[in-house]
Amino acid sequence: MPHWLQLMADALPSLLWAGLIFTIPLTLLSFTFGLALGLVTALTRLFAVRPLVAVARFYVWVIRGTPLLVQLFVIFYGLPSVGILLDAFPAALIGFTLNIGAYSSEIIRAVISSVPKGQWEAAYSIGMSWRQAMIRTILPQASRVAVPPLSNTFISLVKDTSLAAAITVPELFQAAQRIVATTYEPLILYILAAILYLALSTVLSTLQVHLEKRFARYGGMLETNA
């Protein structure tokens, strides 16, 4: 067996394990919490009182205007100077959650705003409250439009988790770095890491296509019933 192929075979279990234990959980947790934060932020910007709207806008402005890597460094390396100590994984989780929350809030805000006002009026005309109209009428329609951009955000997050290596989270990319430090074969091992990220992104892209088709059929059924 060629040397490079043997090296890949030897390193593959370690990289897969790091991806399974750290990369995938970090991605799923960050996206889940970030999506919830994004929904709250979007609703705040659309419907809350002005002071809260200003706070939400400031949060989105700061997160979108600064690099993700800098945000991770502030949380992990900066906060200890004011007495806030966080382990690497929670620090990464907080950083990615805040980042996803800001970007997803803009997507959610846009798709909610795109729902015609007539849908609100129709919901109110049959006696729904604001909360009922939002849950039963507005969000189901908005979610169909939001699937493609949010799916892209999720796929990007998978790749962005490699930045967690910079704050010592032992995820897939840092596992590759550690092996490189002992084998001195950066090209082969970084290509292997890239292949694994590519494979994961390809699987998610395929799932995204199926999800978009399913929502498209659901939307078509709604229009037909209407």
Layout of strands and helices, then pairs:
Blueprint: H1 3-47, H2 50-65, H3 68-78, H4 88-114, H5 117-125, H6 130-160, H7 172-183, H8 186-225
The level of helicity is over 70%
| Termini gap | 63 Å
Low-confidence stretches: 221-226
Number of DSSP strands?
A: 0
The total of helices stands at 8
Q: What is the C-alpha radius of gyration, as a whole number of Å?
A: 21 Å
Overall geometry comes to: flat
Structural class: mainly alpha
The first-level CATH class is given as: Mainly Alpha
Q: How much of the polypeptide forms β-strand, as a percent range?
A: under 5%
CATH architecture: Orthogonal Bundle
Provide the CATH topology: MetI-like fold
Our count of domains comes out at: 1
What's the main sheet like? none
The SSE order reads HHHHHHHH
The fourth-level CATH homologous superfamily is MetI-like
Mean pLDDT: 92
